[in-house]
UniProtKB/TrEMBL annotation:
Origin organism lineage: Bacteria, Bacillati, Bacillota, Bacilli, Bacillales
Subcellular location: Cytoplasm
Cofactor(s) listed: FAD
Record's keyword terms, sorted: Cell cycle, Cell division, Cell shape, Cell wall biogenesis/degradation, Cytoplasm, FAD, Flavoprotein, NADP, Oxidoreductase, Peptidoglycan synthesis
Name of this protein: UDP-N-acetylenolpyruvoylglucosamine reductase
């Protein structure tokens, strides 16, 4: 590795703490840039060093390998947190900003745009990449312009693409079709910011107060506590966030390490994948220390010491079972490295 990269990388570090699955072997190199400038510096040196970059945020939708390739640089944007006030109805948000943090930002600003992001594990960049959806809301509904770097054409620098050209659909975007990684995006708010002073104060403290660890239990506890603090101040209507808590806690999303839903739903079938798995009595099926959740057929949990291969075996089992019974192979939402 070039000396110019060494100050931005950690060496020989376990990937398990970087994933909500708590799975992953020891990586030779992990980088966590805090600024766009550091990101650019990393990318200018990575390829000439013969390394293959793998980008991720909080590791909430990714399965790391048990034995990472030594020439892979695992590049997490979880420390790349930047929010800029552009106008009374427009913000810039960097890729590493936690999705759940946007909901708290909305409360402080007096707007309701971000209620659906509460308790969504992962970063904003990951949310844009997969067009994060919860209830009837999708992240693309808030975007105007997305900023990215083309890994195959680094000489082009930071580029931007209009939301209309991003091919956003159900858990899909143009970023899945190219070797691009997302830097951040401009958001057009549905209603003007009410409390500009509170918003600016929140932005000034964002990097210090963001929770970026991948432990799902700690993640949920932290953001629920932050919500309760705001409720005690009587600063906003938090009904939307309370609905999220009831839904996610009711489905036991944070009881064990997992990535949430493993498969995309097939809307041509008429039933979600979890329901199809239930009809095939797959809940509770276990391989090694990985288990299909006893309460949700589209969630695979790490019950303690699971390996990536355990999860992959369960994925194949579900795909084979659904293919045999219903005539299609469920598409993974989970990114398997």
């Amino acid at each position: 590795m070039k000396a110019s990269l060494e100050h931005l990388c950690k060496s020989n570090i376990s990937l398990a703490p970087f994933s909500t699955y708590a799975i992953g072997g020891e990586a030779r190199f992990v980088a966590m840039p805090q600024t766009t400038e550091q990101l650019v510096e990393l990318m200018e040196n990575v390829k000439s060093s013969g390394l293959n970059p793998v980008f991720f945020g909080m590791g909430s939708n990714i399965l790391f390998p048990d034995q990472p390739h030594p020439d892979t640089l695992f590049l997490s944007l979880r420390e790349h947190i930047e929010i800029r006030y552009k106008s009374i109805d427009e913000l810039y948000v960097s890729a590493g900003t936690p999705m759940a943090m946007l909901s708290l930002l909305g409360i402080q600003a007096g707007i309701s745009d971000f209620g659906f992001t509460f308790l969504l594990p992962g970063t904003f960049g990951g949310g844009v990449y997969m067009n994060a959806k919860y209830f009837s809301n999708q992240i693309n509904e808030l975007l105007t312009l997305v900023y990215y770097i083309d890994v195959d054409h680094l000489e082009r620098g930071i580029q931007s693409i209009d939301v209309a050209d991003c091919k956003f659909a159900y858990k899909h975007s143009i970023f899945m079709e190219h070797n691009w990684f997302i830097i951040g995006a401009d958001l057009k708010l549905k209603s003007p910011i009410v409390h500009e002073d509170r918003l600016l104060q929140f932005i000034s403290q964002a990097h210090k107060t963001a929770f970026t660890a991948s432990d799902l239990g700690q993640f949920a506890d932290y953001y629920v506590k932050q919500l309760e603090i705001l409720e005690q101040r009587g600063e906003a209507n938090t009904e939307a966030m309370r609905a999220v808590i009831n839904d996610r806690m009711g489905k036991h999303h944070f009881d064990y390490p997992s990535c949430g839903s493993v498969f995309k739903n097939n809307y041509n079938i008429g039933e979600p994948i979890g329901k199809l798995a239930d009809r095939l009595n797959l809940r509770g099926t276990q391989r090694g220390q990985a288990m299909i959740s006893p309460v949700h057929g589209n969630v695979i949990q790490n019950r303690g010491g699971a390996k990536a291969q355990d999860v992959i075996e369960l994925i194949k089992l579900v795909q084979d079972a659904i293919s045999g019974e219903f005539g299609f192979v469920p598409e993974c939402e989970l990114v398997i490295v």
